[in-house]
Amino acid sequence: MKLHLQSTTKLYNGVDMPWLGLGVFKVEEGSELVEAVKTAIQHGYRSIDTAAIYSNENGVGKGIHEALAENNLRREDLFITSKVWNSDQGYEETLAAYEASLSKLGLDYLDLYLIHWPVAGKYKDTWRAMEKLYEEGRVKAIGVSNFHVHHLKDLLLEARIKPMVNQVEFHPYLTQNELYSYTREQGIQMEAWSPLMQGELLNQPVLQAIADNHGKSVAQVILRWDLQKGVVTIPKSTKTHRIMENASLFDFELTSSEMEQINALNQDRRVGPDPDHFDF
């Protein structure tokens, strides 16, 4: 079956999650944000990823509501993700943070709610709150972000419900092989943030050669690599041409040799913090 922009992967609980979404990290509140969300939805995106700490849930919500009205769509046609921030972790705090995110977004449920970072001594209580939200039907799926294998194993010692998603930094210079294998074994869907390494990879020679071979951009090659590895991806852009370019991934396929060449670029290099060493 040929993939297209609205193709989904089935999470282990049966929820359908789009393979491609729009990320809004570091996009400030305002008309640019609202228009980016509306443009993405208008051009066929169905997944939007935000977080409490991005301080832009109001604008994301405004963009969603305007796009639904203008494109004759229903709320259930979209897949909306947000995340609980570190200072809001803990059982009661997480329940309150969820309500705050819903209120800002103007929604009555989220499709996916994630623990943003594995805050030591707190993420298990946070997860209990996520389980409660999920069991009450307030959220369609729950997961984590920036969890290493050892964090996941520790969480699973006491969790009643296994995370459905782990959203992590993932790109050709950081292929996270151990984590990739573990999440696949566990049936946890891996999702890539910063798939283009915040633009650092756009002049990478091996990727450029592969892109030239397909008449595509380096960004499109990287995002296609994500999809062929079975990793959900959420590139960020506010520019219409980039939003459209990032979605044009379904009319070409990387060969197994090209996939191997990209896999071999790994340097275990991060642009974001290491989840074992963060102080926020």
UniProtKB/TrEMBL annotation:
| Organism domain of life | Bacteria
Under Gene3D superfamilies, the record lists: NADP-dependent oxidoreductase domain (3.20.20.100)
Carries keyword Cell division?
Answer: no
Annotated Pfam families: Aldo_ket_red
Q: Which UniProt keywords apply?
A: NADP, Oxidoreductase
Q: Which family does it belong to?
A: Belongs to the aldo/keto reductase family.
Record's protein name = Aldo/keto reductase
